[in-house]
Structures are given as C-alpha cells and as structure tokens.
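Recall that a protein's primary structure is simply its ordered list of amino acids. Everything else, from secondary elements to tertiary packing, is in principle encoded there. The following example makes that idea concrete.
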Amino acid sequence: MMRWIKRHHEYLEFFRSDHLLRTKHFFVPVLGNEAEEFAVGITVSKRIGNAVVRNLLKRRIKAFVRQNVSLYPRGVKVNIIARTGAGELPWQTIHSEISRIFQDSGSEPRDSR
C-alpha cells in the first residue's frame, strides 16, 4: 500500500528525519512510519522554475513512484525535495537519480523476484 503525503503537519515531521539521502538534484529525508505503508511527499519550490516547469517535474516524480511502488519497503515515509537544476532534467536522469537514492540507502528497494 502506498499513499501520498498531503498534510502540512506530515511535512513538518521531516525536520526530525532519521536518515538523509542526497543526489545532485534531489534531497530526500526518510522517516520510519508506524503504519505498514510507504508514504511519499514531493516538494518543488519556486527556485526550480515557473509553474509549468514545477508541475512537469512533479508529474515525472509521481510517475516514477507509481511505476516502482511495489519495490519499496513498507513502514517508510520519504519526502522527495527537488534542488536547483532539477527542472531541466530529462526523464532518464530523474529516473536514475531517484533510483540511486533508494539503492544507496538502508531503505533500498526490494527485488521483486
């Protein structure tokens, strides 16, 4: 089961994150989650670009998460925060950077085999 983080108080919880993951264009705080679900939030600030660029980036991140949701562990909350330059990235780079984030972490995607 996967759900999207939408409420402000849930985003505030990431200030006390358990683990921090970084790539050149993304920063991801990770929290343990009492519930047996994988929760994802996306944060894209105005520094990234205009509304069209921000929304395109959010759609691409959501598409990645939807395609790979079965691979990620239950009981984890992540907030994918875009850094400067992320708005100009092609789909392949977004995919590889976000994949690398989870592969380098303790919350590594589980192999579905």
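Residues 46 and 57 are 12 Å apart (CA to CA). The longest helix spans residues 51-68.
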